[in-house]
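=== RUN LOG ===
request id: a7f3
mode: sequence -> structure
chains: 1
length: 180
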Amino acid sequence: MESLDLLILGVEASIALAGFAGIIATFQFGGAKDVRRSDAVGLTMILQISLMAALHSALTLLLYSFGLQATTLWALSSVFAVIFQAQGAYSASTKVRPAVRTESFKVFIVMLQIPTVCLIVINVMNASDIYFHKEPGPAIASIVWGLSLSGFMFSRLLLIPVWRNVHSQEAAKAAIAASG
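=== RESULT ===
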Protein backbone atom coordinates (compact mmCIF):
# COMPACT_ATOMS: atom_id res chain seq x y z
CA MET A 1 0.00 0.00 0.00
CA GLU A 2 1.42 3.38 -0.97
CA SER A 3 1.88 6.21 1.48
CA LEU A 4 -0.78 8.28 -0.25
CA ASP A 5 -3.27 5.42 0.06
CA LEU A 6 -2.54 5.41 3.78
CA LEU A 7 -3.31 9.13 3.91
CA ILE A 8 -6.67 8.58 2.21
CA LEU A 9 -7.37 5.77 4.66
CA GLY A 10 -6.34 8.14 7.48
CA VAL A 11 -8.90 10.74 6.40
CA GLU A 12 -11.65 8.13 6.12
CA ALA A 13 -10.88 6.46 9.46
CA SER A 14 -10.59 9.80 11.25
CA ILE A 15 -13.93 11.06 10.02
CA ALA A 16 -15.61 7.73 10.80
CA LEU A 17 -14.24 7.70 14.35
CA ALA A 18 -15.29 11.29 15.00
CA GLY A 19 -18.75 10.66 13.55
CA PHE A 20 -19.39 7.49 15.54
CA ALA A 21 -18.15 9.19 18.71
CA GLY A 22 -20.65 11.98 18.13
CA ILE A 23 -23.48 9.49 17.68
CA ILE A 24 -22.52 7.53 20.81
CA ALA A 25 -22.17 10.72 22.84
CA THR A 26 -25.59 11.93 21.72
CA PHE A 27 -27.21 8.79 23.07
CA GLN A 28 -25.07 8.46 26.21
CA PHE A 29 -25.16 12.06 27.38
CA GLY A 30 -28.62 13.07 26.20
CA GLY A 31 -31.23 13.86 28.80
CA ALA A 32 -30.63 14.78 32.42
CA LYS A 33 -27.72 12.43 33.15
CA ASP A 34 -24.69 13.65 35.00
CA VAL A 35 -21.66 13.89 32.76
CA ARG A 36 -18.30 13.28 34.41
CA ARG A 37 -15.28 15.37 33.50
CA SER A 38 -13.38 12.28 32.37
CA ASP A 39 -16.17 11.39 29.92
CA ALA A 40 -16.22 14.91 28.51
CA VAL A 41 -12.42 14.92 28.21
CA GLY A 42 -12.51 11.54 26.47
CA LEU A 43 -15.08 12.69 23.95
CA THR A 44 -13.19 15.93 23.36
CA MET A 45 -9.97 14.02 22.78
CA ILE A 46 -11.62 11.63 20.31
CA LEU A 47 -12.98 14.50 18.29
CA GLN A 48 -9.88 16.69 18.43
CA ILE A 49 -7.34 13.96 17.72
CA SER A 50 -9.46 12.36 14.99
CA LEU A 51 -10.09 15.64 13.23
CA MET A 52 -6.42 16.66 13.53
CA ALA A 53 -5.42 13.33 11.95
CA ALA A 54 -7.93 13.96 9.15
CA LEU A 55 -6.61 17.49 8.64
CA HIS A 56 -3.01 16.27 8.68
CA SER A 57 -3.79 13.64 6.04
CA ALA A 58 -5.86 16.03 3.93
CA LEU A 59 -3.23 18.79 3.99
CA THR A 60 -0.55 16.35 2.90
CA LEU A 61 -2.79 15.09 0.08
CA LEU A 62 -3.54 18.68 -0.93
CA LEU A 63 0.16 19.52 -1.12
CA TYR A 64 0.72 16.36 -3.15
CA SER A 65 -1.85 17.56 -5.67
CA PHE A 66 0.31 20.66 -6.27
CA GLY A 67 3.10 18.39 -7.46
CA LEU A 68 5.64 19.01 -4.69
CA GLN A 69 8.76 16.88 -4.65
CA ALA A 70 8.45 13.89 -2.35
CA THR A 71 11.12 15.12 0.06
CA THR A 72 9.46 18.54 0.38
CA LEU A 73 6.03 16.95 0.76
CA TRP A 74 7.11 14.65 3.60
CA ALA A 75 9.15 17.35 5.32
CA LEU A 76 6.04 19.57 5.39
CA SER A 77 3.92 16.64 6.52
CA SER A 78 6.34 16.10 9.39
CA VAL A 79 5.99 19.80 10.30
CA PHE A 80 2.21 19.31 10.36
CA ALA A 81 2.71 16.24 12.56
CA VAL A 82 4.81 18.22 15.04
CA ILE A 83 2.21 20.99 15.22
CA PHE A 84 -0.76 18.66 15.60
CA GLN A 85 0.97 16.28 18.04
CA ALA A 86 2.19 19.15 20.23
CA GLN A 87 -1.25 20.79 20.24
CA GLY A 88 -2.90 17.46 21.05
CA ALA A 89 -0.46 16.72 23.88
CA TYR A 90 -0.94 20.20 25.36
CA SER A 91 -4.72 20.01 25.06
CA ALA A 92 -4.81 16.55 26.61
CA SER A 93 -2.61 17.49 29.53
CA THR A 94 -4.58 20.64 30.36
CA LYS A 95 -7.96 18.91 30.10
CA VAL A 96 -6.99 15.62 31.75
CA ARG A 97 -5.08 17.05 34.72
CA PRO A 98 -8.22 18.07 36.70
CA ALA A 99 -9.81 14.67 36.02
CA VAL A 100 -6.86 12.66 37.39
CA ARG A 101 -7.71 11.29 40.81
CA THR A 102 -5.40 8.32 41.26
CA GLU A 103 -1.65 7.88 40.96
CA SER A 104 -2.08 4.91 38.62
CA PHE A 105 -4.20 7.00 36.23
CA LYS A 106 -1.55 9.72 36.30
CA VAL A 107 1.12 7.16 35.36
CA PHE A 108 -1.16 5.85 32.60
CA ILE A 109 -1.56 9.35 31.12
CA VAL A 110 2.21 9.87 31.19
CA MET A 111 2.69 6.52 29.44
CA LEU A 112 0.33 7.68 26.68
CA GLN A 113 2.28 10.93 26.32
CA ILE A 114 5.69 9.24 25.88
CA PRO A 115 5.04 7.98 22.30
CA THR A 116 3.64 11.41 21.42
CA VAL A 117 6.81 13.15 22.58
CA CYS A 118 8.93 10.57 20.73
CA LEU A 119 6.94 11.17 17.54
CA ILE A 120 7.38 14.92 17.90
CA VAL A 121 11.17 14.47 18.14
CA ILE A 122 11.23 11.99 15.24
CA ASN A 123 9.19 14.32 13.03
CA VAL A 124 11.43 17.28 13.86
CA MET A 125 14.37 15.11 12.85
CA ASN A 126 12.60 14.06 9.64
CA ALA A 127 11.71 17.62 8.67
CA SER A 128 15.27 18.72 9.44
CA ASP A 129 16.82 15.86 7.43
CA ILE A 130 18.55 14.49 10.53
CA TYR A 131 18.82 10.69 10.50
CA PHE A 132 15.48 10.41 8.73
CA HIS A 133 15.66 11.83 5.25
CA LYS A 134 12.27 13.47 4.69
CA GLU A 135 10.53 10.12 4.49
CA PRO A 136 6.79 9.38 4.80
CA GLY A 137 7.20 6.99 7.76
CA PRO A 138 7.39 9.47 10.66
CA ALA A 139 4.44 11.55 9.44
CA ILE A 140 2.31 8.48 8.83
CA ALA A 141 3.32 7.05 12.21
CA SER A 142 1.96 10.23 13.82
CA ILE A 143 -1.37 9.80 12.05
CA VAL A 144 -1.53 6.13 13.09
CA TRP A 145 -0.70 7.02 16.71
CA GLY A 146 -3.41 9.69 16.74
CA LEU A 147 -5.96 7.24 15.36
CA SER A 148 -4.83 4.63 17.90
CA LEU A 149 -5.38 7.09 20.75
CA SER A 150 -8.77 8.03 19.32
CA GLY A 151 -9.69 4.36 18.99
CA PHE A 152 -8.68 3.74 22.60
CA MET A 153 -10.72 6.72 23.80
CA PHE A 154 -13.63 5.54 21.63
CA SER A 155 -13.58 2.09 23.23
CA ARG A 156 -13.46 3.80 26.62
CA LEU A 157 -16.46 5.94 25.67
CA LEU A 158 -18.37 2.78 24.79
CA LEU A 159 -17.30 0.56 27.67
CA ILE A 160 -17.10 2.75 30.76
CA PRO A 161 -20.89 3.22 31.06
CA VAL A 162 -21.30 -0.55 30.69
CA TRP A 163 -18.80 -1.20 33.50
CA ARG A 164 -20.45 1.47 35.69
CA ASN A 165 -23.72 -0.42 35.37
CA VAL A 166 -22.02 -3.73 36.13
CA HIS A 167 -20.39 -2.27 39.27
CA SER A 168 -23.63 -0.69 40.48
CA GLN A 169 -25.53 -3.96 39.91
CA GLU A 170 -22.87 -5.91 41.79
CA ALA A 171 -22.95 -3.37 44.63
CA ALA A 172 -26.74 -3.64 44.80
CA LYS A 173 -26.58 -7.44 44.90
CA ALA A 174 -23.89 -7.31 47.58
CA ALA A 175 -26.02 -4.89 49.65
CA ILE A 176 -29.03 -7.19 49.36
CA ALA A 177 -26.91 -10.20 50.35
CA ALA A 178 -25.42 -8.32 53.31
CA SER A 179 -28.81 -7.14 54.60
CA GLY A 180 -30.59 -10.40 54.09
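=== NOTES ===
The helical segments are 3-29, 37-65, 70-96, 103-127, 136-179.
The chain has a mean pLDDT of 83.
=== END ===
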